[in-house]
């Protein structure tokens, strides 16, 4: 018998639905904070100070930065990070100095940087931004022949073997590196005293595998000058073709900053419409209701709206209700209709995916596509027009399965392992886009539950095998885009259950036992962002609302709804008031060790989804 009062569950669900009705926008979407790293805030301070724009916003961001500084002078990438974060500290220090803060007021930060490896050890994206503004020198001897961009995709080694996320950042960054572009101004403070080596030793070390690749590329430098000019023209066109209507590059602020400087390096004037529109697009990402002011790297509007529409429907909101109709109408308007870079690796499929942000039209991803399709499924059963869109999306998603049986985030088979070994930060996380447990599990959950593909289907057989092969020894799975083992295990278990894998199967039982073993005494679950850095589960002293919901949902999917662990977990979700820290702790990941994400929407989505699934099981 259930120990939980089902009236309490019903009341909690109804409260959450009412709150979401209040928060919905007129266009049907939900626009909630996508809070990432301070990188975008600092890049904004540097760029807009350099252009002499939006001084009020710059001042607000500077005040917010000071609020986030720790007692030892450092800044961190997530709450409770041990010993601070060198890259975040270098960037915050540089942004504040560039915008007029004196060295005297940042002495503790300077000492922290000096004693923790200096600027040389900061993330390479940060060093590029400092070099652009003359704060540190460019490496003298490192160049990337732009002719490499011209190598056809039919060749064994070509630029499109990098992940889409890497390519969109690398094109403007490599252009800047080649031209050693500097935008010097009265704001350009010298930070060379915080460099331990003149050269960027990770790029130029003769023993580095990257040096071997650059030596091979150097042969391209002997090609005729007209081909080098063609490489620059290709880079320029590459950026133009992938710029969204709001002026952002692939809808990422981080890439757009570098695009602005790349255009300047190509000879564009500051008042060029391309540059001004890009600045306007970045400024449009300033959110003053994001635990204070924050420059979002993109909006998360499509992602949030898809997940919330689905969660509300699972909670009992009828598909004909205006709230669902308007949300789904918004989603239908955001389905992609044009072929884009993904066709290079999968030319036979038609467009049909969804992207992450409100302005995204040319960079679909598999997670957003599955999320949108879940939200549209019920309506597709009643509406022929919606069904056509649903069918296109489902066909697209199924076609994006990798050869190894799993799903990646963006494109198919961009997982050449050699690129993951490049000696640059996060190469394995960003240079390639391999199959992951979270993507594979989430896609399986959609296809199994809503497209009726079960474990005997050839694609699902391959996916199940992939998950079994990549299960950790302790029974968990690592999730790439959420924190971390709780996220991956939730995705894998719900995916396996959806395609009909029996809860008694040994891989499932091991995962269930692991989830039960890491539950906290208060009935919740919590995992530290540090898990992503050390590659093993690291417990968080507090239970978070979001991670607790994931764990319970996974257990419910495996038939554990009557277990004491689920009962205690549901009690935790129903308890009021919950600590704000249990809601605000970041549970998303952009780049491990650098970029962690607090989705404002998650504390609405996942408790509602889990409570709804619990109620459905209790009724059955």
Automatic annotation (TrEMBL):
User: One GO molecular-function annotation for this sequence?
Assistant: intramolecular transferase activity
- Tell me which residues make up the Squalene cyclase N-terminal domain: 16-288
Q: Squalene cyclase C-terminal domain location, by residue?
A: 300-615
Reading the lineage from the top rank, the first entry is: Bacteria
Stored Pfam families? SQHop_cyclase_C (PF13243), SQHop_cyclase_N (PF13249)
> Which InterPro entries does the entry link to?
SQ_cyclase_C (IPR032696), SQ_cyclase_N (IPR032697), Squalene_cyclase (IPR018333), Terpenoid_cyclase/PrenylTrfase (IPR008930)
List this protein's GO terms for biological process.
triterpenoid biosynthetic process
Family statement: Belongs to the terpene cyclase/mutase family.
Q: What is this protein called?
A: Squalene-hopene cyclase
The organism of origin for this protein:
Terribacillus saccharophilus
User: What is the taxonomic lineage of the source species?
Assistant: Bacteria, Bacillati, Bacillota, Bacilli, Bacillales
């Amino acid at each position: 018998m259930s120990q939980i009062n089902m009236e309490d569950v019903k009341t909690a669900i109804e409260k959450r639905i009412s709150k979401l009705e209040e928060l919905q926008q007129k266009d049907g979407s939900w626009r909630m904070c996508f809070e990432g790293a301070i990188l975008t805030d600092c890049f904004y301070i540097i760029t807009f100070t350099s252009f002499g724009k939006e001084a009020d916003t710059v001042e607000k961001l500077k005040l917010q930065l000071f609020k986030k500084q720790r007692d030892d002078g450092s800044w961190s990438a997530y709450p409770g990070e041990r010993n601070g974060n060198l890259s975040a500290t270098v960037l915050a220090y540089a942004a504040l100095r560039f915008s007029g803060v004196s060295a005297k007021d940042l002495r503790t930060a300077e000492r922290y940087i000096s004693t923790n490896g200096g600027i040389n050890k900061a993330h390479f994206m940060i060093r590029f931004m400092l070099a652009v503004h003359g704060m540190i020198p460019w490496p003298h001897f490192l160049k990337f022949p732009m002719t490499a961009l011209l190598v056809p995709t039919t060749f064994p080694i070509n630029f499109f073997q990098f992940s889409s996320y890497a390519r969109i950042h690398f094109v403007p960054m490599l252009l800047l590196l080649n031209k050693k572009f500097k935008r010097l101004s009265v704001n350009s403070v010298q930070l060379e005293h915080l460099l331990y080596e003149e050269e960027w030793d990770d790029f130029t070390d003769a023993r580095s595998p990257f040096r071997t690749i650059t030596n091979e590329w150097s042969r391209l430098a002997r090609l005729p000058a007209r081909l080098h000019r063609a490489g620059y023209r290709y880079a320029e066109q590459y950026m133009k073709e992938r710029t969204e209507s709001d002026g952002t590059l692939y809808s990422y602020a981080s890439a757009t900053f570098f695009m602005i400087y790349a255009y300047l390096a190509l000879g564009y004037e500051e008042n060029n419409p391309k540059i001004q529109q890009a600045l306007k697009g970045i400024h449009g990402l300033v959110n003053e209701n994001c635990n204070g002011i924050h420059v979002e790297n993109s909006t998360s509007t499509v992602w949030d709206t898809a997940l919330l529409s689905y969660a509300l429907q699972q909670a009992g909101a009828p598909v004909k209700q205006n709230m669902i109709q308007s949300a789904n109408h918004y989603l239908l308007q955001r389905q992609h209709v044009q072929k884009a870079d993904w066709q290079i690796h999968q030319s036979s499929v038609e467009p049909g995916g969804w992207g992450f942000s409100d302005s995204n039209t040319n960079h679909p991803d598999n997670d957003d596509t599955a999320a949108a399709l879940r939200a549209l499924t019920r309506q597709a059963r009643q509406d022929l027009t919606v069904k056509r869109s649903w069918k296109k999306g489902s066909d697209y998603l199924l076609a994006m399965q990798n050869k190894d049986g799993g799903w990646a985030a963006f494109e198919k088979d961009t997982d050449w392992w050699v690129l993951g070994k490049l000696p640059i930060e996060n190469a394995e996380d960003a240079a390639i886009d391999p199959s992951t447990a979270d993507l594979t599990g989430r896609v399986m959950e959609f296809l199994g539950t809503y497209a009726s593909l079960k474990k005997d289907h050839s694609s699902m057989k391959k996916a199940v095998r992939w998950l079994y092969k990549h299960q950790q020894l302790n029974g968990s799975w690592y999730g790439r885009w959420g924190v971390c083992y709780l996220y991956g295990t939730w995705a894998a278990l719900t995916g396996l259950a959806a395609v009909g894998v029996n809860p008694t199967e040994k891989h499932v039982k091991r995962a269930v036992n692991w989830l039960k073993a890491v539950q906290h005494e208060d009935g919740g679950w919590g995992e530290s962002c540090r898990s992503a850095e050390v590659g093993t589960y690291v417990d968080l002293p507090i239970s978070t609302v979001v991670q607790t919901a994931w764990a319970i949902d996974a257990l419910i999917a495996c038939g554990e709804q009557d277990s004491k662990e689920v009962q205690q977990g549901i009690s935790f979700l129903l308890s009021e008031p919950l600590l704000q820290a249990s809601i605000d702790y970041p549970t998303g990941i952009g780049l491990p060790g650098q970029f962690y994400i607090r989705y404002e929407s998650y504390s609405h989505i996942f408790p509602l989804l889990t409570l709804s699934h619990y109620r459905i099981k209790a009724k059955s």
